[in-house]
């Protein structure tokens, strides 16, 4: 009898332990902080977007984030990759959101799930699938029934997927926070009253999904209760939430910036980032998120636009390849440690501020026996010596000193103490590192180059002929970056737009890249830029008596992802396209044009190394005067 009782109680203990692994966590908030299981928390978060790396990279990235002192990993959810065709969902591989969230949980960290589903994020079309644009009557991000129905359906799908896997904190999972919409407050005035109605609807819809964890809206000063309005920016110490009952939270602290093709490589000094972080916690903040902590790579055709680069490195604490970036990563880790030493005081009380002279201030968190202080010099030029509690402290320009006991400085944000390791990039240094640190670099096994010819102009059977110039995105639905526009004219020899055999051809395009071919030969090319994608190309061309073919190749480099009505920003050759000479002009804008979506090489999957195609020619003699060529080489490392 006793033995049975013992066995039974042992079984009960095992059951309790198992249940304990997925014990529900209660997440609420008050005016100071997120409150997890009744305890206010000071949290440090960082963005890692799951599709910007590969699943085998996830555990390593998350571990480096944990080692860097992070408590929370933030990610957006990218609608277009999960629902490429309406109603057909894809959560496999790099798109396996639940696996990513579980990997974060395995490391013992929390998750902030920013569902959007508009995300901006330098992601193609802001994360919206293109098919959404073609839903009859749809108007994005406003009080529009077709749009709201789709947004609600996808948001509910994500929430249900997370619930199905038991991933909300309320179910014992890691998700402690969620976001709906994204920075709508920056642009909602362009949508008038309908925009406000939409914003309130989005908030209500999110809450109705009953996740059991708080929702936030970023950059939305009038986010309705119970949603928390949060700050995004390079500095957020001056931010105040819209209710005395909400905590001060920073959802995007830009650790660097994104790269555009043709733009400068962004850089944000570690000292400045550390200053911004310390100032935020000094001035009452309790949750901040690095955007990005690991930026990664815009794989496939996911980069937004126009002209967002493939690298999304972001000058983040973990670089594009998953290596820690020093001294940024190490210095921030030290800042996080210093802030965590202050946590007992930070959660116990509100700060009181003391002026330490011009451009210098102390914030003191003192409750009973705990006391933490932050001393800031917000003068960007001059160092200062200040007196605090009868002691002198030297504060370098633009710095914060952290005193977890109100007496001793454990860290000043302008002074980097963490060990600085420099890394060296070498070609193919992958294989052997000897005990003395020397590398054996293997020879690169490179196959010979092969090429495949891409024909100029229309080659597909399904080309479409129509009078007038068509906008590109509405024509391609972004199935390809490329759209051919082709027309022909017959020259007798005495046309008013001719000057001998010459004529001036003007092509006006919304962008992003243009190539002009006359009679199969390249006549010129032009491209826009990240700041303006508009193109006006003009050049003298030679025409021949009889039939002349004009082929225009227009390419997009990432669809717009930001701004009011960004979804309606067009691309491609919308005209005018005009020939002119000394005696007159010929406007081709309303001529008959034949359209071909995509290149032949795309149909043949020439971009896919796993597919062999008879098109490839292996040779060392490359064709000359052939304007469009695909090249291929294989490397074995
Ligand atoms: C923010 C936006 C992010 C990202 C960032 C710039 O305004 O919320 O999604 O686009 O700017 O990297």
From TrEMBL:
Keywords: Apoplast, Glycosidase, Hydrolase, Secreted, Signal. Residues 34-338 form the Glycoside hydrolase 35 catalytic domain. It is found in: Secreted, Extracellular space, Apoplast. Its EC number is 3.2.1.23. Belongs to the glycosyl hydrolase 35 family. GO terms for molecular function: beta-galactosidase activity. Gene3D superfamilies: Galactose-binding domain-like, Glycosidases. This is Beta-galactosidase. It catalyses: Hydrolysis of terminal non-reducing beta-D-galactose residues in beta-D-galactosides. GO terms for biological process: carbohydrate metabolic process. Pfam families: GHD, Glyco_hydro_35. GO terms for cellular component: apoplast. Residues 1-24 form the signal peptide. Its main location: secreted. Residues 362-416 form the Beta-galactosidase beta-sandwich domain.
